[in-house]
Every structure is written in C-alpha cells, then in structure tokens.
Amino acid sequence: MTRGGAENHKVHYKGKTDDFLVFIDDQTAYKKYLSEPEGQKTTPLAQVVSSFQIFTTNKHGAQGEYNAPSDGVLENEFDTKVVEDAIKVILAKGQIQENEFPERQGRRNDTQGAY
C-alpha cells in the first residue's frame, strides 16, 4: 500500500518586517486568479486559498515555525487588519512554492503478520 505522495502549495511574501505565507489549494486556480485584472476578478478567493489564514515565519523565509500574525503586524505591513485584503496582496506580490511529499511503502503494523 502506497502512502504519502501529497502536494503542498504555498505563496511566500517577503515583507518589510516579516515573511508571510498563504497556503493554496489549486495552482491552476491561483494562476487564473492572477491573470484576471484587478477589480474584475471572477475567480472567488475561496477557490484559490486553502483557508483564510496568514502565517508568519519570523524572518525564516518559507521554512520554520508558522505563527499567526497579530492585527498590529498586519496593519504595519499591509495597512489593514482585514485578513482577506492582506491575502490578496500576498497572492499578487508573493512567490509560489511547491512541495511534494515522497511516496513510501511498507508495513503498517508488524504485529499483524504478512500482508
């Protein structure tokens, strides 16, 4: 039985004070969202992002421990406390990064004998 093999897409934005991340579901929907002119977007943001949540990494790039930014951090960086507006900036100005988890095979429980 093969396990793993999942893909993970995130958009990394290097801000003035910290690094910000937003996880996205579908790379195709993200590219379509970016190609649409501002003010005329037909792709809903809910189809692009995994959740309406922003993460910071304390200046460790796209790696490290993910933390939720405070309203003050969002206000200083994006001039708004509204998470959706900050996500739009991150999606527009950030860099997409793809990770693929390797597939692995093997027994799940040796005490159950051969499979």
UniProtKB/TrEMBL annotation:
The lineage of its organism: Eukaryota, Fungi, Dikarya, Ascomycota, Pezizomycotina. Transmembrane segments: none annotated. Pfam families: SBDS_N. This is DUF1960-domain-containing protein. Residues 9-103 form the Ribosome maturation protein SDO1/SBDS N-terminal domain. SUPFAM superfamilies: FYSH domain (SSF89895). Gene3D superfamilies: Ribosome maturation protein SBDS, N-terminal domain. It comes from Coniochaeta ligniaria NRRL 30616.
